[in-house]
Structure prediction request, 613 residues.
Amino acid sequence: MDEQLRILKKFFGYDTFRPLQAEVIRRTVEKRDSLVLMPTGGGKSICYQLPAIYLPGTAIVVSPLIALMKDQVEGLIANGVPAAALNSTMSDEDRWQIKQRCLQGRMKLLYMSPEGLTGELDRLLPRMNISLIAVDEAHCISQWGHDFRPEYAQLSVLKERFADVPVIALTATADKITRHDIVKQLNLHEPEIFISSFDRPNLSLAVRRGLELKDKIAEIVRFIHRRRGQSGIIYCRKRSDTEKVADVLMRRYNISAVAYHAGLLPGVRERAQNDFINDRVDVVCATIAFGMGIDKSNIRWVIHYNMPGSIENYYQEIGRAGRDGVASDTVLFYSLGDLVLLRRFAEESGQVSVNMEKLYRMQRYCETDLCRRRILLSYFGEEAPNDCGNCDVCRNPPQRFDGSILVQKALSAVLRTEERIGLRMLIDILRGSGRMEVQQLNYHLLKTYGAGRDLPYQVWKEYIYQMLQLGFVEIDYLNSQVLKVTPLGRKVLFGETKAILTLYKEPVEAATTGRGRRSTRPASGAGRAASTEGAAHDDALMSALRLLRKQLAQQEKMPAYIIFSDASLQDMVLRKPMTREAFAAIKGVGDTKLEKYGMLFINLIRSVLNERG
Ligand code: ADP
Ligand code: ZN
Prediction:
């Protein structure tokens, strides 16, 4: 074990293992099979990269996408580990070189696509000394999954052909069918199944609802301005919205943003993705087509411009933030319009009941006033006994009040207009709006006209959402979305039951990565917030470090996060290392990076601090 800890520090720059890493490594070194289920950012790579370094010979890593292989290989080489990927786009000469190094035992890891591996089953592989075989993104083997790749099915011969070589299958997809399928199809021999928690405590969670378009944009702009220079994704449902939002951010607010969706020309799309990966653009406004095959570890935030159709999708999309374990923020915006549309999609889909149920669970997540993380984790079948302290509900706990009179005003307005109005008209009547349409329909003559003048539009909207949620009114989806009073609503109206509402409050910013960060740590105690703990904030030093990292990345034509992760930069801000020894202790600094970049960063830190005197 000591030897393995030494390798962990020397090549990866870390002092301790993450949960399950040590166990998986031990099993692999003992030449036994395992299946590893860990969330994105959980630290799967080290589970096979470290044994690959430790064991004699070369590890074969199967990976589905060239982009993913490239990223992993660049990361390994930057850490001084001999690694390469074989793929069909290379020249014969390059392929030959790589194969030679494998045969001579001068390669620790060789990445291959499943079809590439099948092609070498009788050629290269039998002549190599294979230390282990890692099957990354192993869920691609399952027909049940969302990512089925037929080429993966051929991997079943591996155990026949290389019976003594340990196989380690890894995935971030946790459901039971997929799990079972992987074990069966890969013919894993008495595998141990390692399942880590799918919690991502470094991601803050927040939901905002019912904002008018201009308010939504304003809030997004404020959010981004507090996070200048940080990378983030805005997921939009519609292709046209990705372009509109990117355009507004760029032209009106001078934010560096780009649109990404499947309808763009391949060249344009690729450039957008590369600009984002290489920190040449901060924000990508994208449909869900964006994200697969991107390993960028320094994505600091994800915004959902619309409500996703299921919790699975939502969790996967926010999961792209904070892979490096550094605190990252997520916000989901939704409106009744989203709900109406998603309902229609679900109804028109092939699997109505499944999709309606998924949508319903998503909606409940959005509408909850319980800790959101507990809801997420329980959805994934995990126990979550404590409130997380890092979601909007925990940060701004609900305060209840008797809202009966308020609800009565609204319900009575709905009835007096003979249930022919939607949400907007209802609020206009309550607030006594002078809008033409209100007058034309003679709604200004109603008794309830202006009865709710004291509350702003947005606050009324929030309470009407609550009334929907509590079942006092419902939306007539078939009839231009007008509001109808339910039997329960009538009880409130006639004073037979009380309407307990949650007080509207201005949202409290998560601000774990933005300025004005919370100083307190999440409530539920030790460990959970380890990744956000001690996150230092010295904006000037951080910007200087980022700039140096970016310059080095440009020189070396590599993404900045390969040079150093945000977690490493934060550690530098926190500890301000000014000697080689101190720099060596920084998270993510192994021998190679110490030699290569140590003095550059030390000198920068010295000069920034000296200027301050
Ligand atoms: P996954 O493949 O599970 O999404 P990665 O292997 O890419 O996750 O790891 C996510 C991040 O966590 C990387 O930045 C990696 O360097 C870091 N990491 C992995 N193991 C450790 C560890 N033991 N200590 C600190 N950071 C780690
Ligand atoms: Zn919470």
Q: What stands out?
A: Residues 513-535 have pLDDT under 50 and may be disordered.
